[in-house]
Amino acid sequence: xxxxxxxxxxxxxxxxxxxxxxxxxxxxxxxxxxxxxxxxxxxxxxxxxxxxxxxxxxxxxxxxxxxxxxxxxxxxxxxxxxxxxxxxxxxxxxxxxxxxxxxxxxxxxxxxxxxxxxxxxxxxxxxxxxxxxxxxxxxxxxxxxxxxxxxxxxxxxxxxxxxxxxxxxxxxxxxxxxxxxxxxxxxxxxxxxxxxxxxxxxxxxxxxxxxxxxxxxxxxxxxxxxxxxxxxxxxxxxxxxxxxxxxxxxxxxxxxxxxxxxxxxxxxxxxxxxxxxxxxxxxxxxxxxxxxxxxxxxxxxxxxxxxxxxxxxxxxxxxxxxxxxxxxxxxxxxxxxxxxxxxxxxxxxxxxxxxxxxxxxxxxxxxxxxxxxxxxxxxxxxxxxxxxxxxxxxxxxxxxxxxxxxxxxxxxxxxxxxxxxxxxxxxxxxxxxxxxxxxxxxxxxxxxxxxxxxxxxxxxxxxxxxxxxxxxxxxxxxxxxxxxxxxxxxxxxxxxxxxxxxxxxxxxx
Length: 509
Description:
Elements lengths: L2 H17 L15 H4 L15 H8 L3 E8 L9 E9 L9 E6 L10 H9 L6 E7 L27 H22 L8 H14 L5 E6 L1 H12 L4 E7 L16 H16 L2 H4 L5 H17 L2 E3 L3 E3 L4 H8 L5 H18 L8 H11 L4 H15 L5 H12 L6 H4 L25 E5 L7 H10 L4 E5 L14 H13 L7 E3 L2
Parallel strand pairs: 3-4, 3-5, 5-6, 6-9, 9-10, 10-11
Antiparallel strand pairs: 1-2, 2-4, 7-8
Helix pairs in contact: 1-6, 6-7, 8-10, 10-12
């Protein structure tokens, strides 16, 4: 190994040791316990796992390659058990202007990322040619070493408390049971299913790729992951874009708490849109009438679960997630999907026979069967491993009741108890930022998932950053996802040149 390579490896080792709170320091006289991770050979190979692997075949057709990176399960015990993190790579073709690796994260928590080199290369255009685009399935997600809690309720992270105390008590029992199942299935690894450890995995990836720094594009939860990485590994980032910005101060195990007002505003805006299209969807000629249809559906589900086709019963605990899932975008096609779903739900609320649309069938399969078990368990494990706290079961009910009058749809969901109440306490304290990173922050003022106030807070935390705002948009995820040329052009300009704008910028929706 060259002297420069060994110097980089040693520096990486020191950073990982500090981040993992290890009690010993590698010296020239002692073997480096992280060397086998930092200096590992990356075996790039074809992505397709078989004839039915559509994702793998698409990656192969685009010229991408895949690999598995070996990382410690527990960074405080680098000689112990290891796991694998799955990667995809679309190599830079403009070698004269190559910047380096651009690591991509689609959010979640627990969102897979192997597909992202394909989708992001489209919006990046010729800028993509300057980067090795790196997709990552975070630890225990997708094709990485798996984790499945064996839940038959895939909606566990997004369940609603219900209409009354009896319904809430059912939720307490469900949360306790789900936590117990995950502990019995994976209690030995749950302490290590955390954002901090995923950030450490990112730095192993950086070292294994032979790079001094990573560029990074993260959406939603991926913004939080990027923030944690910058704190644990200062100076290791190059160009950084955070889209749909989380503030560490608001990151909690009740994922939507604090976003009730934004979601209810998105619901009202959608209702106005649907009312203008009453001839198509029949949900009401005014916003008030459309909202009354929604209330009718929710009330009917509280009385008796809605039957959808022969296979599904949709109760008051799961139904709100259908609405919330449809409110993440104000694009016409997304609003139309929700309107079509609500039309079917309204018929089911009237106890008419209803067959689900293809979209609704997919949602119900995920929410009501074991099909959603793995991603739901992974999401819950990450959040609980990061910020679980024992508040007492009564505290959630009080919060639900306090929020219900103002936020009848979102309040009982955003404030409901989760399995985290019955989880072991996190092995590490949540990350506190005390740094300043030059990054491009992208946010919509009406984002119903990650609040615009979070983006403003991160802009204040990082004075060297710049904030790119889309005024008036009720959209979660902008770059390459909203069709906004202004956003796409500004992000591409930054990724091309590495120069942030001289001041904060605003785009029209």
